[in-house]
Specification:
Helices cover about 35% and strands about 30% of the residues. It contains 16 helices and 20 strands. It is of the alpha+beta class. About 0% of the residues have low confidence.
């Protein structure tokens, strides 16, 4: 056996054969999807790391990782978006696979070594009902595991059984769609144009490069994807793209006319895709990841929207299959900055504005975050700190415009805190502030303080979503170990906002504070970064 890397002469030939003829589930392990990932990730992707083990003139097993660099300069060798760390050629005998996997495992470790990454992380789909040999090896080295779930429909059963597995409400919605809409499975360029149009209208603008859409068009030409459209009263009102392989179909991107959100547009589209992929001989239909409101394995607590989407996917039947995300910290490979007196310090002025430009980090269902600037200090802004109801539980009140502007600029200039503006996601209206910091870089912990100044946004979970977004932002871009806050025990509104966002009460300090002329308990709350624990 020999191992070929990308620079080797015969690599591309064997790699192409492996990607056409592998036994891994999901439709995401293909050259087209790897190219899509490169475009989608942009500068975050330093390079694609792949190799293939060859026996004679046939590929046996391969690997694909993404070498990612975050905005703080930390690097990771990652195969979590696709379970592509081990790609096995079809009809490979167990003894040959075992030998090839041993050789490849050594190569993966050496690739991590030469890349000087902080962690190696990958997805184990428990294909044989247990952990893979690579996961066993990683656990021996000190890896930790987090559970995730995917909703998967078994396409090997007959159509009548698939239909009975749908919930009653889902059956009703599918029947409504079939009665009122014209449904079509399509691979023509116009179908993708219609999906892109709906996506742009629903998102309020482009969320990814045009080249990624062009690549999805190439997937359709190569029979690696298809679109299902729904036409109502002569207009396309909903569409979805599905990626497909020899054995699996993956529910990708969908969009619908926002004016018709009260109608069940998507149910019939997905049912049409399930039937189509079953007829073409696929074995599994992947509806996507699953979250539950009270199951907190997530980096931050899931939003109500995410919970509802998961419930929608489960209405099509199937099973919530567990998977593991395996993370092996490689402490020996810290960036050069680790030798400084502040081992994880990153420049807030550069890192956080760039991160907030990414809608995935800054935009939620109700609110969006952006950098707070001196230009935001208006009479309306200052009125928040003069309103007794707004500042009742806060020590900052009655500030001047100059004081406010100076405070906003001081945090990034000294690299100790950063102010975010909390805005209405639909209108962009500035409704409150959120501060990450002071940050204690040596301890990798930071305070987080939130205020909703516009009282029209009280009681609407505005603060909850802002805290959830900011927690994800701080953990992913600053690499912090923990966030924390303190509050008076009477401040029920803030307590609910933080705990709904996934934070936990850690301590109660009895009679610790003087508030409204009486002694009162103080609550200490916090949230850990699960990826660093």
């Amino acid at each position: 056996m020999r191992i070929l890397e990308r620079q080797d002469r015969d690599f591309e030939r064997f790699w192409a054969v492996l990607l056409r003829n592998h036994d891994n589930p999901t439709a995401l392990i293909s050259q087209s999807h790897f190219a899509y990932r490169a475009l989608y990730l942009g500068q975050a992707l330093e390079k694609q790391v792949c190799a293939v083990v060859v026996e004679g003139d046939r590929p046996i097993i391969g690997t694909y990782f993404e070498l990612l660099r975050d905005t703080g300069g930390r690097r990771a060798l990652d195969a979590t978006q696709m379970a592509s760390q081990i790609i096995v050629a079809r009809d490979t005998a167990a003894p040959m696979r075992n030998g090839a996997e041993t050789l490849l495992r050594k190569w993966i470790y050496e690739a991590a070594d030469s890349s000087k990454v902080e962690r190696l992380t990958f997805r184990d789909q428990l294909l044989d009902g247990g952990l893979s040999p690579l996961t066993h090896w990683a656990l021996d080295q000190g890896a930790h595991i987090e559970s995730e779930f995917n909703q998967i429909v078994d396409l090997t059963i007959d159509e009548e059984s698939l239909w009975r597995a749908l919930t009653k409400s889902c059956q009703w919605a599918v029947n409504w769609g079939r009665k009122h809409m014209v449904l079509r499975v399509r691979r023509d360029p116009q179908a993708l144009k219609e999906l892109r149009r709906l996506h742009l209208e629903a998102a309020g603008g482009a969320t990814r490069q045009a080249a990624t859409w062009e690549l999805q068009g190439k997937m359709m030409e190569d029979d690696e994807a298809f679109v299902v459209t729904a036409e109502l009263n002569g207009s396309i009102v909903s569409a979805a793209l599905f990626q497909v392989s020899r054995s699996d179909c993956y529910y990708g991107v969908s969009a619908s006319d926002r004016l018709l959100f009260d109608k069940p547009l998507s149910h019939a589209i997905i049912w049409e895709a399930i039937k189509h992929t079953r007829q073409r001989g696929c074995l599994r239909f992947w509806l996507g990841s699953q979250v539950w409101e009270r199951y907190r394995w997530h980096l931050t607590a899931p939003s109500r929207k995410e919970v509802n989407i998961s419930r929608f996917k489960r209405s099509f039947g199937g099973r919530s299959r567990p998977e593991f995300v395996v993370t092996l910290p490689l402490a020996a490979y810290q960036p050069a900055a680790a030798a400084s007196s502040s081992p994880s310090e990153v420049p807030l002025r550069e890192v956080l504005p760039a991160a907030l430009a990414d809608p995935a980090l800054s935009r939620g269902e109700r609110v969006m975050l952006r950098p707070l600037t001196p230009g935001d200090v208006t009479p309306r802004y200052l009125s928040w700190f003069a309103d007794p109801e707004v500042h009742r539980y806060r020590e900052v009140r009655g500030i001047s415009a100059d004081e406010a502007r100076e405070y906003i600029e001081e945090g990034p200039s000294k690299n100790i805190y950063f102010m975010c503006a909390i805005c209405d996601a639909e209108t962009g209206l500035h409704v409150g502030n959120l501060k990450i910091g002071p940050i204690r870089w040596q301890q990798s912990v930071a305070d987080m303080v939130t205020v909703i100044g516009d009282k029209n946004y009280w009681g609407r979970q505005t603060a909850t979503e802002a805290i959830r977004l900011a927690s994800r932002l701080a953990f992913r871009t600053l690499g912090l170990q923990k966030l924390h806050a303190s509050m008076y025990a009477d401040n029920i509104g803030s307590l609910r906002a933080y705990t709904r966002a996934g934070w936990h009460v850690e301590a109660r300090l009895k009679q610790h504070s003087l508030f409204d002329g009486r002694r009162q308990d103080t609550l200490l709350i916090g949230q850990f970064n699960p990826g660093n624990r």
